[in-house]
From TrEMBL:
Sequence ranges of Basic residues compositional bias: 219-233
Organism domain of life: Eukaryota
Coiled coil feature spans: 16-47
Regions of compositional bias (Basic and acidic residues) in chain numbering: 204-215
Pfam families on file: ERK-JNK_inhib (PF15002)
Protein name: Coiled-coil domain-containing protein 134-like
Keyword terms of this UniProt record: Coiled coil, Signal
Signal sequence extent: 1-19
Length: 239
């Protein structure tokens, strides 16, 4: 009788052990399915966001061109740029805090959590827009940007986030590279020139005049002015 009980007990214990193994295997399979599902959801959301990001970039580029070409006068351009950058860095500061608190680090997969996704989007979009403004209005932007060490650290962090993100395409990474060169975060390429810098435009104008035989350095102009005799005002000077 005892042998029969022992036999059933062994069978019972074996059945429980075998059942536990099956349960563990099922749980592992479910965890793997959930992981793949999360990856697919993240990939789908990434692709959806990429499309929207591309559309927004078109508006941002247009806005930076408008600030450069349609806002007339240095004072007005400075005032507008100052207001835009002030708002921009407030958003970037809050977004940086939100991402750090969430545990998000450069190179992490695109988040599926809406709040984290929103904070990351603010960083990706505003960093690119900052680059547009910096490259098109370099003298004004440098003047404003150089006043805040905090903003400089924020932008350096944002660039690292964008560089590690899967959102930026080849064009986006080229923009990040230009931003880093313009801010001197990395060494400038030998042929790097920002055509919108005042110094670059003056050099270009001087080279043009020189090619036409009219080029004079400021020192040469000063000497020639001293040599010239004073004359009465000309009509062209008065107009």
């Amino acid at each position: 009788m005892n042998q029969i009980l022992q036999k059933y007990l062994i069978i019972f214990l074996f059945s429980i052990s075998h059942a536990n193994e099956k349960i563990d295997k099922i749980e592992d399979e479910l965890r793997e399915e959930q992981r793949l599902l999360r990856e697919n959801q993240a990939r789908l959301q990434l692709e959806t966001y990429r499309r929207g990001f591309k559309v927004k970039r078109g508006y941002q580029v247009a806005a930076s061109k408008s600030m450069q070409l349609e806002v007339k006068g240095y004072a007005k351009q400075y005032e507008m740029t100052d207001k835009v950058l002030e708002k921009m860095f407030m958003v970037l500061k809050d977004s940086k805090t939100a991402l750090i608190e969430s545990g998000y680090t450069p190179g992490d997969p695109f988040p599926t959590d809406k709040k984290i996704q929103e904070a990351l989007a603010h960083v990706l979009e505003n960093t690119a827009f900052f680059g547009d403004i910096l490259l098109r209005l370099p003298d004004i932007t440098h003047q404003i940007y150089s006043k805040s060490k905090e903003n400089q650290l924020i932008m350096k962090w944002c660039i690292s986030i964008c560089n590690a993100s899967e959102v930026y395409d080849k064009t986006g990474h080229q923009l990040l590279d230009l931003i880093a060169q313009e801010l001197e975060l990395i060494p400038k390429d030998e042929n790097y020139i920002n055509p919108y810098k005042e110094s670059t435009m003056l050099e270009k104008e001087f080279a043009k005049q020189k090619a036409e035989g009219k080029g004079h350095t400021p020192q040469q102009k000063k000497k020639e002015k001293k040599k010239k005799k004073k004359r009465g005002p000309k009509l062209s000077d008065e107009l």
